[in-house]
Amino acid sequence: MLDKFSDSARTILRFAQQEAFSLHYSEIEPDLLLLALLHDKESLAVKILHTLSVDETALYGSMHSALASNEPLPLERTT
Question: What is the pTM of this model?
Answer without folding.
Answer: 0.76
